[in-house]
């Protein structure tokens, strides 16, 4: 993560989350690859999940480009069966605040008298 080796991460749970996609596909799938990831924005946990998703997507795209399509499909199915968020991003985003209220949807209370 940003030039820091994975061994330096102190929280074992977060470290396991990063290694999850690598353990799922096996050493033979990524053994000859050199993985370097740069991430910015969000908190530590969000960055860990972004790294995790990036690793999984990169391995699948590597298989699509340099290995055959059937092995890529098997790999993708294995990852999707384990955890869908490894390959599919969460589309939810913060809705911007609008005028006339405290938030995006909340409005000030109307007074009729």
UniProtKB/TrEMBL annotation:
<dbReference type="InterPro" id="IPR020574">
    <property type="entry name" value="Ribosomal_uS9_CS"/>
</dbReference>
<dbReference type="GO" id="GO:0000462">
    <property type="term" value="P:maturation of SSU-rRNA from tricistronic rRNA transcript (SSU-rRNA, 5.8S rRNA, LSU-rRNA)"/>
</dbReference>
<keyword id="KW-0687">Ribonucleoprotein</keyword>
<comment type="similarity">
    <text>Belongs to the universal ribosomal protein uS9 family.</text>
</comment>
<protein>
    <recommendedName>
        <fullName>Small ribosomal subunit protein uS9</fullName>
    </recommendedName>
</protein>
<dbReference type="GO" id="GO:0022627">
    <property type="term" value="C:cytosolic small ribosomal subunit"/>
</dbReference>
<dbReference type="Pfam" id="PF00380">
    <property type="entry name" value="Ribosomal_S9"/>
</dbReference>
<keyword id="KW-0689">Ribosomal protein</keyword>
<dbReference type="GO" id="GO:0003723">
    <property type="term" value="F:RNA binding"/>
</dbReference>
<dbReference type="InterPro" id="IPR020568">
    <property type="entry name" value="Ribosomal_Su5_D2-typ_SF"/>
</dbReference>
<dbReference type="GO" id="GO:0006412">
    <property type="term" value="P:translation"/>
</dbReference>
<dbReference type="InterPro" id="IPR014721">
    <property type="entry name" value="Ribsml_uS5_D2-typ_fold_subgr"/>
</dbReference>
<dbReference type="GO" id="GO:0003735">
    <property type="term" value="F:structural constituent of ribosome"/>
</dbReference>
<dbReference type="InterPro" id="IPR000754">
    <property type="entry name" value="Ribosomal_uS9"/>
</dbReference>
């Amino acid at each position: 993560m940003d030039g820091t080796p994975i061994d330096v991460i102190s929280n074992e749970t977060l470290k396991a989350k990063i290694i999850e996609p690598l353990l799922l596909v096996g050493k033979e799938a990524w053994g000859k690859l050199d993985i370097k990831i740069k991430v910015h924005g969000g908190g530590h946990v969000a960055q860990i999940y972004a790294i995790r998703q990036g690793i999984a997507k990169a391995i699948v795209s590597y298989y699509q480009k340099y290995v055959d399509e059937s092995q890529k499909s098997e790999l993708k199915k294995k990852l999707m069966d384990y955890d869908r968020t490894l390959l599919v991003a969460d589309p939810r985003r913060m809705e911007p605040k609008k005028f006339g209220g405290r938030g995006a949807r909340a409005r000030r209370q109307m007074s009729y008298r």
